[in-house]
Amino acid sequence: MARALLISPSFFIFFIFLIFSSAKIPAFGEEYSYVKRVNPKKMKMLKEKLSHFRLYWHDILSGSNPTSIPVVKPVNNSSTFFGSINMIDNPLTIEPKLNSKMVGKAQGFYASAGQENFGLLMVMNFAFNDGKYNGSTFTVIGRNDVFSKVREMEIVGGSGLFRFATGYVQAKTYMFGTNGDAIVEYNAYVLHY
């Protein structure tokens, strides 16, 4: 005696829809309509290079034309200036003197993020305006423990000649003035195409 296969009406309608529908159900591993693979050679991503930049970052709080301005005041009675935020448009030069050749600006902000220890959250773009790097940027983000001799922060991306950039910077204070002005040596190691 043969058994009849019972199929629910809703499953039958769904099955018919699948057969006659122009809708495509993506299979595992298939790309969606808004994503496609790109050949890296077409984007001129031929060979990854490692470049080292030594730059001097000038944080100027004093005078009539500061490059770093406070935009949020710290919490009252904080010895670490917790909560304070400064916006920056700091010159990047090739020597420690401010009047040496400027090759770009560090644009972004730093915020005091430590309640017990003085540590800054740094978020800035190194935006170049010199030679073949003119118009290119790389982005630095990380914790800056300003009282350490050398601090390390991440390079998390870039634009122009620094597209797909990764790497790190090491910051070392060159000078800190009584007026709050500072010169910091930045050694940036950038992997880019």
- The Rg value, from CA coordinates, equals 27 Å
Count of β-strands: 9
Q: How many helical elements?
A: 1
Q: What is the first-to-last residue Cα distance?
A: 72 Å
Structural class: mainly beta
Mean pLDDT: 89
Strand content: 35-45%
**Which geometry do the CA atoms define?**
extended
Low-pLDDT windows of residues: none
Structure description:
This protein has 193 residues and is mainly beta. It contains one helix and nine strands. An eight-stranded antiparallel barrel has the order 1-3-4-5-6-7-8-9. Strand 7 and strand 8 (166-176) form a beta hairpin. The longest helix has 12 residues, at 9-20. The protein is extended and about 85 Å long.
Q: What's the gist of this structure?
A:
The chain is mostly beta strands. It contains one helix and nine strands; from the N terminus they run H-E-E-E-E-E-E-E-E-E.
Topology overview:
Layout (H helix, E strand, L loop, with lengths): L8 H12 L28 E11 L8 E5 L12 E9 L8 E11 L7 E9 L8 E8 L6 E9 L6 E11 L5 E11 L1
Antiparallel strand pairs: 1-3, 1-9, 2-3, 3-4, 4-5, 5-6, 6-7, 7-8, 8-9
Any descriptors?
single chain; 193 residues; mainly beta; eight-stranded antiparallel β-barrel; 1 helix; extended
